[in-house]
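Lecture 7, part 2: worked example. A protein chain together with dioxothiomolybdenum(VI) ion.
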Amino acid sequence: MPATKDKSNSPIGRATKRIDGPLKVTGSAIYTSDHNFPGMLYAVPVGATIANGTIAKLDTKEAEKMPGVKAVFHRANIGQLFRVAPNSDFSAFSDEDRPPFDDDIIRYYGQYVAVAVAETFEQATAAAEAVKVTYNEKKPNVETLLSADSKVHVESERGDAQKAFDDAGLKLDVTYTTPAETHNVIELHSSVAVFDDPNFTLYETTQGVVNHRNVLAQVLGVEPENVKVISKFLGSGFGGKITPWPQSAIAAAVSRKLRKPIKLVISRKMTFHAAGHRPRTQQRVRISADEKGKLTSLQHDYLNHTAILDDFKENCGECTKYLYSCANLRVTSALAKRNIGTPTSMRGPGAVPGLFATESALDELAIKLKMDPLQLRIINEPEKDEGINIPFASRHLIECYKAGADKFGWAKRDPRVGSMKRDGLTLGWGMAGASWIAERWPAEVAVELRNDGTAKVSTGTQDIGTGTYTVLAQVLADKVGLSMDKVEVVLGDSSLPPGPLSGGSMVTASLIPAVSKAAEKVIGTLLAAAVKTPGEKYFGVEQKDMTYTEGKVHKKDEPASAGISFQKVLNAGNFKFLTGKGSSSTTFTAKPKVSMHSYGAHFVEVTWQEEIARLRVNRVVTVIDAGKIINPKAGRNQIEGAVVMGIGMALFEHTHYEPSKGAPLNSNFADYIVAVNADVPALDVHFLEFENTELNEYGARGIGEIGLAGFAAATANAVYHATGVRVRNLPIKIEDLLATT
Ligand code: MOS
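Predicted complex, written out as structure tokens:
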């Protein structure tokens, strides 16, 4: 079934260890906050203690007199900071548009109102606490029940969904909610800013060094050429580090004011305030089917909360449009403004909460139909993307279901609620489908062949922990016929050729064509060098008769083994290195001719121990159709990590906003629960590697996000099977399950 066959010596598709692994495990990898400079000062922001109102008075006198304190900055003395221009191509985008300290209006709890700067972190922290702020306070709106503040936007429509729904005998009208979730990455958001007039060097925790540079240049009011953003290693991002947050501009502005390097690391608590989150969603699903299970209508009307100033849409209908065949469909969205920090992308934005709703609804419908939920999905498999009426480029969702069902043992499922028992525990078996976009960002890379026999690939992207260093080493090693230890990968610097954002699971797919072109370019130069070096083997041969394979320069009519290495060519010609550049374009701008997505299926077993109200995720099988997997080791790790996050989403994660003050209540690791080892069983992950070269020659798509899509629904479906309780509001709580017992 896997269609792609590798040349035995190609590193593509090989389960290679991370090339940056030794640096990380020995502590030699330099993360943002590890940067230190002579004379560096520490900055600690002061966050508003109200969520709605205005600043009446900001008194910094006491704070300024404290030991080690150099300054306290706020709106009146930080200097002008500018707004980011509206942007539709993601080249300079920031989810929070308002520059820090822009006015005296407080719109969310924790909004930065000042920043204390001192010689030590402790002194700066003490000074920040000593800044006295009085407010004109208004009651905040952090209400969880959502109703549309904005115009309802029709995202997709075909047929007449309402009429078909009204006419249907078998139907369901239910509402699901998903809570605000905070990206609890290990590495806190950090900025180390070094201003050396007129240039800024900004060490940042970012999933996009180029975007970060472009945004910060605008906010600081300088040219992009005067800003360099560095991010060599990231302690993960999950989307929370895609766009810059206010601490970055604050650090840079303070550095410019004081002419000193500034380190600013926000606290875990501040992470909940002013560094993005996945917004709460409320999704009404109306769905109907005929008696055979064929869908006759599907309506998905969703709302998400957003900040007062920013219209962040959680695109819950992302997959609804194309996942199932249904002639009558309508998807709408709307926003509900709240006194809450700006939401942002979180792993699988839109699709992940959206699929919780629609994949739960499919399960509920299957139960009404007395039909196997897997069968219901198979019946409604579309032949084309009915959302935009184009063929699928590569869709193997049914194969995912079948492979997953096989490996899980789904055929042995007794559909009766609570009927399956093992070792005194009630088992629940649930399943759901998954999908995610498969696209490319624009990307440029440089490839260098060097006279010591090594090669280098460099691009202004970053490795957020997903394995980009390693995957690029594999790709370049394949392209120039070198072993991976002879390949250097340079990333995480905005002055490199502009590379992709680490967002949307698109880095690998985006970079492959660019590396390929850059390699072709440099090999062309290499061949020219080979035939122009007097006294050397190929001197005077026509360049068109030359080629490069398996690491050797040789004539087309002779085997590679008769040729010479590029190292020999470079040394003979006295070249230190040769460089080639390559770029590839985004797939977003073109009117698509084919529908490109990845697919997957999750099968989940939960155990329910009613006597002590203990619910566990006990067994998981996940099958992913994401094309060629360049590195199955790093790839599996992505899916496993996503499933771990899925267990957290299904059972634990929930940012609570306290209604009177509007503060996130559980803004720490004791009270914001994420899945830990003890919550996670052994995970069984499989890739179906169907060949499709739409995005690049290897047929690689993205795998960073899809593993989370659908997982919470599969779990909720399993919980229903075990307990008979349909939980439509995440996370699934023990209290929900006790209600009926
Ligand atoms: Mo992702 S939410 O595109 O890091």
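The longest strand covers residues 295-307. The two ends are 47 Å apart (CA to CA). Keep this in mind for problem set question 3.
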